[in-house]
Design a protein that fits this description.
Elements: H1 12-24, H2 29-44, H3 47-57
Length: 85
Amino acid sequence: MKKANITVAFDEDKLDALEFSLKKEGSTVQSTLEQTLAQLYEQTVPQPLREYLDSRSAPAPRPKRPARPTPKERPAPPEAEVRHE
């Protein structure tokens, strides 16, 4: 799926404090917002619509290639003819 950017205005001092606190927890504002937005999507968008959107974004299945024969299955190369003079 194509990604969209979201811009949100937020107080700079509060953002600095939030980044500092999340860094202590091993997280970031970006990852926390992405998780929160995903939860909002799950709670708000009806399941049938989510399934439809997921099916549109799924790549088409690639046809399977035939398996290569193992050395036991491969025919033996013809033996070279040896001439004795």
